[in-house]
Design a protein that fits this description.
Shape: globular
Helix content: 25-40%
Bound molecules: manganese (II) ion
Distance between the termini: 43 Å
Oligomer: single chain
Strand content: 15-25%
Number of domains: 2
Order of helices and strands: HEHEEEHEEHHHHHEEHHEEHEEH
Number of helices: 12
CATH superfamily of the largest domain: inorganic pyrophosphatase (n-terminal core)
């Protein structure tokens, strides 16, 4: 891996980007790596082509996030692609990849396609933030400070469901303990992630849960959001993040799915599972993927048809 150190030493202009629909792990990884590379005097552009979810506004260095603009950013020596199973998960990535000499792919998704010139893909890592910690500590030897630690800890918490999912390992706890030594304020992170939700988003949650559907002996729960619902509560799709957990957490439910028809005949699918059900396998059948217990896809059909296909597919897996 000191290939990476060598590459960074020989580079100056560096882009860092992650997947569409930013979450705690992807944004934290971008910011942490960006902060670290700036410490060693690299010209870093941290790219977010989506709007940042409000709950992540507290993250250090978020003011460095910028939209990719080919007029301003005409070449990069390295483009780091973080927390992304495939290149197609990068929003508006084509031009960026064109102007980047080397692609470094850092990820923990089981579905990762090893699309980089350098691939640091660790399926046993809880999160990309965990891998970034390893890279900084072991390969690049860039000292971690409080801001970097705050980002990385946020990533760990986000992707492990606060250290409760099966991807949480002794290594994850070890890293968390090291990050705490750098002065991370867990209470402050928890406040922003979980205790600062808008009243409207909670009302939307109530409304969405009213129309939850159950299939297959209530082992499958499906919820859907419509634009009408979102606008009624003055909410965006980003405000629905985490709602799927309520469906998954119901006793007896083994798989939870959310559906959102964001354009006509384009349905965004998120799936979560507990116990043994593999939603990566489920979403693979529709061209998507992710992790065993958290994955997504886009289905090109009406909402009703997408629902029917998914129910049939889950039924097959149950058998
Ligand atoms: Mn992740």
């Amino acid at each position: 891996m000191n290939r990476l150190l060598k590459l960074i030493n020989e580079s100056n202009e560096i882009a860092i980007i992650a997947h569409v629909n930013p979450d705690g792990d992807s944004v934290s990884s971008i910011l942490a790596l960006g902060l670290a590379l700036r410490k060693v005097n690299k010209q870093v552009v941290t790219i977010l082509n989506d709007s940042l979810p409000k709950k992540l506004f507290f993250l250090p260095a978020k003011e460095h996030l910028t939209v990719f603009d080919v007029k301003k950013h005409s070449k990069f020596d390295i483009c780091f692609v973080l927390d992304c199973g495939s290149k197609s998960r990068v929003k508006n990535g084509e031009k960026l990849f064109e102007v980047s000499k080397t692609i470094v792919n850092i990820d923990h998704h089981i579905s990762n396609e090893n699309f980089g010139d350098i691939n640091i893909v660790d399926l046993d890592a809880s999160s990309t933030s965990e891998i970034i910690y390893n890279v900084l500590e072991n390969d690049l030897e860039i000292p971690i400070d409080r801001d970097i630690a705050t980002c990385l800890h946020t990533g760990l918490m986000s992707d492990t469901g606060n250290f409760t999912y099966i991807n949480t390992t002794s290594r994850t706890y070890y890293i968390a303990s090291k990050l705490l030594e750098h002065g991370v304020d867990i209470e402050d992170i928890s406040y922003h992630l979980y205790q600062n939700k808008s009243l409207n988003s909670i009302k939307l949650l109530g409304n969405v849960l009213e129309s939850i559907d159950f299939y297959l002996d209530k082992r499958l729960a499906i919820i859907s959001f419509t634009d009408k619902q979102l606008s009624k509560y003055n909410a965006s799709y980003l405000d629905t993040s985490g709602m799927i957990d309520y469906a998954r957490d119901i006793s007896g439910v083994e798989v939870a799915i959310t559906l959102y028809e964001f354009e006509k005949n384009k349905v965004k699918v998120s799936a979560r599972s507990k116990k043994r059900f593999d939603v990566n396998y489920l979403t693979n059948q529709f061209g998507g993927g992710g992790h065993k217990k958290a994955a997504g896809a886009i289905i090109f059909s009406s909402l009703k048809e997408a629902k029917e296909k998914l129910v049939a597919s889950v039924e097959k897996s149950f058998r």
